[in-house]
Amino acid sequence: MASVVVATAARALLDPWLDANIPYLFYYLAVLFVAWRTQLGPSAAAFVLGVLAGQFFFVAPRYSWMLHVGDAEQGFDLLRFSVVAIAIIVICEALHRARDRAEALTAKALAVQRQLEHEVTERERAQRALQQSNDELERRVEQRTAELRSLNEALQRSNSELEQFAAVASHDLQEPLRKVQAFGDRLQTRCAEQLGDQGRDYLGRILGSAARMRTLIDDLLNFSRITTKAQPFVPIDLGAAAAAAVADLEDRMLQAGGRVEQGELPNIEADASQMRQLFLNLIGNGLKFHRPGVAPLVKLSSRLLPAGAVDATGAVAQHCEIQVEDNGIGFDVQYLDRIFEVFQRLHGRDEYEGTGIGLAICRKIVERHGGRITAHSTPGQGATFVLTLPVRQTLQEGSR
Question: What is the pTM of this model?
Answer without folding.
Answer: 0.52
